[in-house]
Amino acid sequence: MNEATKSVWLEKLKENYNTIFVNQWSAFIGVTLLIVVMATLMGSGLFWGVFGGIKLWGDYLNNAIGLGPSLGIKPQLEDIFMHRISLMNITLVFGAFSAALLSRQFRLNYPPLIEYLWAIAGGTLMGIGAVFAGGCTVGGFFVPLIFSSYAGWAMWPGLLLGAFIGLKILLWSFENISWGMSAPAVRPARFKSWYPLIGILVSILIISWAIIWWDSGNDKKEVRAILVIAGFIIGFISHRSRLCFSRAIRQPFMTAEGEMTKAIILAIALGASVGAFFISNQSIDPYTVIPARFWIGSFFGGLVFGLGMIFAGSCASGSLWRIGEGHLKLMLAVIFFAWSGSTTNALLTKSGLLSTNFDLDFIDGMAEVTPLGVQAFMPDMIGNWYSTLLLTYIILFIWYLLVRYNESTNRFTIF
User: Which residue range is the domain that position 366 belongs to?
Assistant: First the structure.
């Protein structure tokens, strides 16, 4: 190979590397790949979640600071690396961390002082909202819609209203508060030339971890091996495509930009069809996934969570992958999200609001019922899959039309 040919080959190789690992992916590519991962999980009888793992971290935190006994939290908790949702959260962070390193975009991000206060407030509200809704924007909104539950649709207007109120408050603060608004000086990243190599090393370690557990002969670890890879890939995809449910909810109100919103609409449309396939083929039981929160818990939880994610600057999954790229504000937000979620869950459990019964007559399945709502599985309530999917697509199309209208007119924007 002569020098000219070698130079062209290396240039093309660099171009391909940049396309995959450096240049931002389209949000539509990101959500399509996400649905592929979720389909793989559903085919294995599994599902994606976030809040359950974060709440477990909060249980550990409450026990560590001595509040566990008074809240009724068990002293012996499940290992955070064996709890399915916690494990996926951890590997999601590593997936984003690897992607940030490979793109040389990892950097410790120090926000203005007031942002730390917003992080505390936002994380606390997200924890409260997630308990009431039975999940965050993933487990209370997105995944229930993939599993054809009215709970997701009930959380949706709550999220929109909460985001609207939150943005109004932030706009007021920008106009009336000057303390802590100055951003600290940007600190140069060290060892940046080593980032891609470290990113490759992180990827190799995660893959090795999954292989070791897959070949362990332990059924529980074999299942966790799938989750290790799934969480890592979700984190990687989320970072590369900047996938964020918070952005999908808030951005039309802020700038009228609707790309992420339309991508999430596409994800729900694709995911609902995939979910219908796996549920109808009995690959997964929807009643193990759908929260018993329709409609009171879903709506109120969505409102509080929507308000919180505006203050925090991201949703639950978005906070995790942004931690992977170095956002200190969101590290603090997740700490308070975990503590608040654990504390609120314990208090509501003591109050009886999370007590579970079963209603065998309300719908065809074995539906859980709590004072905050029921497990509303649309096919059992409507009677068939065709009507369920048709209703889902109609709502999504109306949402899409509103987003497109707002992009053209700025009719719903606040800023």
Answer: 27-408
